[in-house]
Amino acid sequence: MPCPLLADSITLELEAQEPWPQEIILYQPYEVEQILLPDNANCLAVQAFLKMCGIDFQIEPRSNAEYMSPSGRVPFIKCGAFLIPEFDNIVSFIGNKGTSLSDHLTANCKADMRAYMSLVNNVFVNAELYICWVDELTLNEVTKVRHGSVYPWPLNHFLNWQKRKEVIKKLNVLGWYNKTIEEVCEEVKNCCTALSERLEGSDYFSGDKPTEVDALVYGHVYALTSTNPLPSTVQEIALTIQEFPKLLEHTSRIDRNYLNRTECPVGDFEVSASSSKKTLWNYSDSIEALPPLSDDSFEILFLNP
After folding, report:
1. Domains in the chain and their CATH numbers?
2. Strand ranges (DSSP E) for the chain?
3. Residue 161's pLDDT band (cuts 50, 70, 90)
4. Which of 112, 137, 163, 200 is the most exposed place for a label (fewest CB within 10 A)?
């Protein structure tokens, strides 16, 4: 029986042999009231990548996009009869169909590109998870409200508790959970320094044409610097990135050339007063007057059935 990684690779190759559908559909959470910083960054990265490839797609927001995704992570695309989740899998799938942003690179340049992508995933992604699920002010004022906004009470509290437990377990394994915000900023600064040095004298990371790493960096830098306002405890992270003008210019260049954005993204950290009509729960009929549940409530419930 093949290992999971081999099985995933075989599946992607078989799916890629199918003819192109008329349009790709990209599924993601609702931007105004629901999406969180890590998901917003990933969604922007995939959108930028598809635009760079010249592939038409339609964005389809869904309140339960995370649970529709085969991997439990967003975004994911629907291409014909297939569902492909997450940036790396989408890049591989599109590449197997004959469209790649890095075909012109040498083997050494491709290895460098993969190294920088790994750096971004190991630093920016963990920093975003830390901001949302570890920093207490952000957790209580933003994350819990947005993540649970489309579900009824008490399901919203349970899903917040479940997601936080999952993220904390991951950050603990990676050594990020016990970091201070100052240490997180230092990690981000070191990552930005490496990326900025690579951009020295070039419009993109591999010369005058964008590659997959450009799309990935764009998504995270744009999300972290355009989210406004960030809670006071984590504003330092955005200020840290703003110390690197080359990264900001790189983000603006991709914005102009591929995304045609003229203003801040609608996915800003903003607590919406009302939910979308298509969300799972209508707050006008909610019983939010009931007291909120704490994380301890679920710990007691599941540890002492």
Report:
1. 18-97 (3.40.30.10), 107-259 (1.20.1050.10)
2. 24-28, 57-61, 76-79, 82-85
3. very high
4. 200
